[in-house]
């Protein structure tokens, strides 16, 4: 195979080459200009001052883009994910192959070599041909599948198609297929040795011969197809910034620029309020530049909407539509704002916004914004890190600032401000939950090692108080040196922040941080994932840095350290006797899903757990997050009702939870359907197992 190679620009004359380069540079110029114009529009957004975490950005590029892991994962759209992966890797390999041909071509010019190829020959060329034929086939198959799906579903389904999408997917398919046409024609024209190396191209060569193409007329056919292929490629390149293909560029930048942790929110300062006279997002230019960039990263695939529990419950919220509708609005008013700023005239900007539809009301309704539970499912499933949650919470801030919230949700915020808890109950009653227990406080045990954060639910809700009792019993049994804040604890303000009341949250956080500082608190455990998220991600923004653990993490550590022991003869469930509901703020937002299962295995048995279909990071929301706990929904309208049905479908006798909100929502939902299933927190299940173990041990000693 030493002489095996191919002629570069075979059958392409000087004039065609000149025209080719003119078209190539023109298409790349249009591409660069389009990206520049979009970048100028993105810059209309605010600079939040967030620093780039390059390590996290690189990891995100590998895990979300290069590995296509997020595209392939998920309960739904697995088939689309597989074909997208085929097309992606096929495209990348074909692009690399094209670059290698370019290196070969320009190497001749650089080194002044004429005639023989530099490296595009011999064994290398043989491997090259097989490799590109194989990956080109994967690419073409992927494009063909998407084209067939678009034709079949039209504008239906979860994907929101645009007219240009039909051109794009058709172009992708034809570019791949016409590449094989060219390869087949080249085989006929050059009478290529070992044509079977290009096995797909060789099959096309046989087809062309059957259609009458031979050495006498192949040049004309080859040149025609070559130009058709080339012009389509140039049109494809030029269309990038103006079509859905922009998601390739915008999505990559979206992954690189800023890597926020799930559950993280950017604080609003008093200085910003004084400067702008408003809180949150009123108009599109109030979004950050990264949020505007993420609008273009969204490909409207519908994964977020498929995963949204509010959409599933029939609420007027589709994360995909929120992003796409704001993008369309941005495309309309963005250039007008840009022109006004170029002229340095604020009145022109105000005039442009006054003439356009309003972001609030006309584009996105308040009911849509309040439907979100901030469960982060939409963000989790997005391959390009688009976060509808951050868009929604920033818009909520403006509504709160304008006094647009009323009813029970607004009352809950007022009660937090007045009494330090959403129930509006007296702060002096915060320690009443501990009646009958000898619970140490920071005053009675100043040498404590870890603080147990009780939270408002366990403080005032009689059912949730049983969770706090169970945790206290387990801590006492393990000999943990702990304490509680007693009456000095108040609401973390987590739900207030997610509802949009930023300054109420900050007031709550500052008060709590002062108290925690007074008692030199370093380590905190809490049974509430929402408190966990706020204490670990919100509070550090205001100087409150603590080692925060969820009670499932802490209890797992105690078991592994042999401080808590469950006898094998203690409660052992039958196969499938218990199922577990992963709280969104525990599993998805804070990545804690193994420890709860470890506790179930220790307390009930490794075979007792019956996993629900959507578990771990793919868990479905109970419906209480983001302040939805305080909305008065009718039972048939509640967001968590499908989750209840999913849990009951396992036929388990016990539903285990590890969040007070989930305990309330699941208890109410299940009680409305059956009285044969019990809902319990994992600490209660473990405490029962420990108590059973102690009884067995005492009984055994008596026998002896």
TrEMBL record:
InterPro entries: 4Fe4S_Fe-S-bd, 4Fe4S_Fe_S_CS, Cys_rich_dom, HdrC_iron-sulfur_subunit, Helical_ferredxn, NarG-like_sf. It comes from Flavivirga spongiicola. Gene3D superfamilies: Alpha-helical ferredoxin, Transmembrane di-heme cytochromes, Chain C. Residues 289-319 form the 4Fe-4S ferredoxin-type domain. This is Heterodisulfide reductase-related iron-sulfur binding cluster. Keywords: 4Fe-4S, Iron, Iron-sulfur, Membrane, Metal-binding, Oxidoreductase, Transmembrane, Transmembrane helix. The keyword Lipid metabolism does not apply. The chain crosses the membrane at residues 12-36, 86-103, 123-146, 166-182.
